[in-house]
Amino acid sequence: MARIEGWDADREIAVDIATCDRAEFNQLTTNQCWARRQRIRTLEALEAYSWALGATRGRPDHAFLPAALSAWRRYRDATCALAGAAYKGGSMEPMTVASCHANRAIEWTTEMYLVIRTPR
């Protein structure tokens, strides 16, 4: 799989586990944990996309990947803004938006693996 330069996934996940799974939870620490998880999941999704670009080179579906990424980003941003709207201006808004982004990134990563695994 392609690696994002300067990103150490194992280290990032270890920090997440060490801080978020054992943190004294209040809204601030919860927001920070979800922001970190959003970053991890988004970087994983971009790695999967990069891998899909390489795996589909020479296949007809390769040309559609950039447009799919752009559409996914618009969808993610719109649905997550909608999710956060219920808490607009409140302390739960960042957590809600970040968890939504993390969940959409997991879905995108799954989609990219399906593209890679689909025989052509």
Short description:
The protein has 120 residues and is mostly helical. It is built from four helices and no strands.
What level of helicity do the residues show? over 70%
Q: Low-confidence stretches at least 5 residues in length (pLDDT < 50)?
A: none
Q: Quick one: biggest sheet?
A: none
What is the approximate shape? Answer: flat
Structure characterization notes:
By secondary structure, this protein is mostly helical. The protein has four helices and no strands. It is flat, with a radius of gyration of 16 Å. The longest helix is centred in the middle third of the chain and has 29 residues, at 27-55. It is 72% helix and 0% strand.
Task: Note the topology.
Layout: H1 9-20, H2 27-55, H3 65-85, H4 93-117
Helix pairs in contact: 1-2, 2-4, 3-4
Notable features of this structure?
single chain, mainly alpha, Substrate Binding Domain Of Dnak, Chain:A, Domain 2, flat
